[in-house]
Amino acid sequence: MKAIIQGIRGKIIKGIIKVPGDKSITHRAIILGSIAEGETRIQNYLDGLDCNSTITCMQSLGVQIEKADHHLLVIKGRGLNSLQSPADILQVGNSGTTIRLLAGLLSGQNFNTILDGDDSIRKRPMNRIIVPLSLMHAQIKGVNQSDFAPLKIIGRTLVGINYTLPVASAQVKSAILLAGLNARGNTVIFEPEITRDHTERMLKLMGANIKILPNQKIILKPGESLTGVLVDIPGDISSAAYFLALVAARKNSEIVIKNTGINPTRTGFLEAIKDMGANVRLLNREDISNEPRADIKINGAPLKGIVIDKKIIPRIIDELPLLAVIATQAQGKTVIKDARELRIKETDRIKNIVQGLSRMGANIYEKEDGLEVIGPTQLKGEEVESFFDHRIAMSLAIAASYATGQTIINQSECMDISYPDFLKNFFRLINE
After folding, report:
1. I need a labelling partner for 19 at 20 to 30 A (CA). Which of 46, 109, 244, 340 fits?
2. In angstroms, rounded to a whole number, what is the distance separating the alpha carbons of residues 218 and 210?
3. What domains can you pick out in the chain, each with its CATH number?
4. 304 forms bridges with which residues in the sheet?
5. Active-site residue flag, 389
6. How far apart are CA 263 and CA 96, in angstroms?
């Protein structure tokens, strides 16, 4: 499918919008609700392709999950040790979160499984979870290649470990914690760089014996049953970021994004655009289901280039292609470095955002671990590729709004992975 977008450079945009529920929290609520005792009700869950893959996998493991409507998910938890052996290979689609978190959970079960996904998943490195899980006595390896999907997991009794994360990865951390629920002895994780902590927050909400110490150490003691709860999921700040970017550099424009997650492990994008000069305020703050949220108000303002490095990269990793788009409208040089992780996401996001923005006339240069942008630039409409990557596709849609002429984004259906109604909401805002 092709998305066709007419540039609206210079247009004033005003409005109020809500974005869908947080994708990362939705994944974790589904998985943890499935192994909790009793019923878990998930409000404002993300009904997107990735999260649906997690639902399908958990249903294949014997969990009863009902979509009461597009805003409410009801899970009948089976408890920690009552999942059923699946009749077939578990297919995770395009979801790296699903395959990595389930690898941890399934390593400690009393049956064997195979996890597989699409071509993109088969290219993503799995050694980063295989190594720590193997230290816990898990038996897990690639069916065809040692550290790539499909992954064969032989369920067995695990042991807790003390582990320092060699790379900042919430998926790796979460896989270890899920394995630790069924391990003998404590699981202790130290993360040199803070990563998103939705798993820890939800484990605590459901009654796990987990401690988060000030020195970035996490201690999980096994043996406690999880209890089903009501989980109210805030809007996804990664989805909200696209609309913040739509307005950030537009003089006299203003939007409010309602009920958006502001978990401090996820607010790197807000900090970055504030450093660039964006006028951002948080209104109506509250904490529900152990997750902070607020209404985010942004007014367009002149922006300047900044440097983004390892101090903030783990808290802004998904939004970096979008930040490159904003940088094309900022005065001076923007540098993104220490972001090699971008090359092993759904696609090589450094290469692909540079290619797309270059075609649109940006002064952007690819680096081994990031990129540089010199702005401001008058972008022009072009036909560009999404490479079936939802974050690249939505970032290029925002770039198209700042361009002159018409932009065509190929394979735009990939936006359904994380934000099925993105184009609907995008066109509503720019056409009001």
Report:
1. 340
2. 7
3. 2-21+234-431 (3.65.10.10), 23-232 (3.65.10.10)
4. 331
5. no
6. 21
